[in-house]
Amino acid sequence: MAPQELDGEKVINVAQQISSLKLGWVIIEGGEPLLREELFEVIEIIRKGGIKVYLISNGMLLDGNIARRLAEFNVSLMISIDGADKESYERVRKGASFEKLKQAVAIANEHKILDSCPVTVGRHNYEQIGEMFKFAKETGYKKITFLGLKPCMDYKKYVLNGEQYKDIFLSVVKYQREFMMEVYFDEPFFKPFLREHGINYSADGENGIVVPDTPSCIFGSYMFIETNGDVKPCTFAAKTMGSVNEKNLDEIWNDIQNSELIKKITDFSTREGKCRKCKYLYQCGGCRARTFNLTGSWFASDPSCPLRQEI
After folding, report:
1. Minimal CA–CA distance to 184: which of 246, 106, 121?
2. Which of 7, 33, 105, 185 has the highest CB neighbour number within 10 Å of its CB?
3. For every one of its 311 residues, what pLDDT tens digit does the chain have, with 9 covering 90 and above?
4. How many CA atoms lie within 13 A of 147 on its CB side?
5. Long-range contact list for 158-161, CB < 8 A, 24+ apart?
6. How much of the chain is in helix, strand and coil states, percent to nearest 5?
């Protein structure tokens, strides 16, 4: 366990706090959550609160017993991949095994807990969309979730621009039809792009392309808890709103909702530049974490939007 990670007792306490909140869902991720010995106690506590649990794992530790226990709690498992073949997958995921990945997907399918295959897309792999679909299909996935790379080390080197996002979106539509896999792209401008180009989608994935009812930037509409207990209004935000080591979650959530800065950010009318003039403003809002990282402003136009030159 890393020195700054919350200890088991505190993790259980946070899970109890989560269970008491009126939440629709919780995503448990890592690092690798299957390494935490208190994981199933955490899941049980959260499920008692009537909250849906999603778990993101690399699958390396998954076996039949773990899958069975996850199924008992109706957990939806997302097994992530990086790289479109054995060589690239094992190069990116140091120490991971392509064969073990395939076994994990098969086990998850057998226990009916496999949700999707999360794939983070940046300049390093955005031209491999077709290969990613083929890889996921052959491995045993039925759904693939793309996530545009968000702020990280050397971000400006790998972040996608608008033209690259346009290419990716059109490729996703093309390969979804070819491989007949359910697909979702976690970017606020995905739905506006589809609408602008007359591409069909649905909230239930009926036509293969999934877009939730609320696809816009959800900055400040949820909480992300870091492994050290810091709480952020967005997974990738360069801003901390408190710590579970100092306050209860309900207090931190109240602080988020009453923050003047958060109120301004969640008010899409405060957007500037092309975002402010865009007809899809209230369906999108642009990614605030990316925009702040690239421009230094919480309110500027999203530099990666593929519609900036089209509308």
Report:
1. 121
2. 185
3. 445 899 999 999 999 999 999 899 999 998 899 999 999 999 999 999 999 999 999 999 999 999 999 999 999 999 998 777 778 777 777 777 888 999 999 999 999 999 999 999 999 889 999 999 999 999 999 999 999 999 988 999 999 999 999 999 999 999 999 999 999 999 999 999 999 999 999 988 777 999 987 879 999 999 999 999 999 999 999 999 999 999 999 999 999 999 999 999 999 999 999 999 999 999 999 999 999 999 999 999 999 999 987 76
4. 15
5. 158/122, 158/123, 158/124, 159/122, 159/123, 159/290, 159/294, 159/304, 160/121, 160/122, 160/123, 160/126, 160/304, 161/303, 161/304
6. 45, 15, 45
Contact 70, 104 (CB under 8 A): no
List the beta bridge partners of residue 202: 210
d(CA 181, CA 209) in angstroms, rounded, equals: 9
Q: Which amino acid type is present at position 119? A: V
User: Tokens 């790379």 — which residue?
Assistant: 149
Burial pattern 156-173, b for ≥16 Cβ within 10 A else e, equals eebbbebebbbebbebbb
273 preceded by cis ω (within 30°)? no
208 token code pair: 């293969």
Lookup: tokens for 32: 């690798």
For the beta carbon of residue 302, count every other beta carbon within 10 angstroms: 27
